[in-house]
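WARN no homologs supplied; continuing
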Amino acid sequence: MALDAGEDTRLFGKSSVFDSLGLVMIVAEAEARINERCGSSLILASERAMSRQHSPFRTPGSLADYVCELLEERAGEA
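OK structure emitted
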């Protein structure tokens, strides 16, 4: 079954396209690919992410924004 997903597709919360296990799998896969490609050790599902007023896991767009934020912070630390 193909998923027609866009930047604003709901990944988490009401009207989401995934159940909780599906979301965990998406986040784990994204984390693995980011770390492989960037040679980093980012952890996406952290206390920081969970404590935000708006979850970075709501949509692919919000997840991408969160990843960019983490990578920019990491680059600033180097």
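The radius of gyration is 13 Å.
OK
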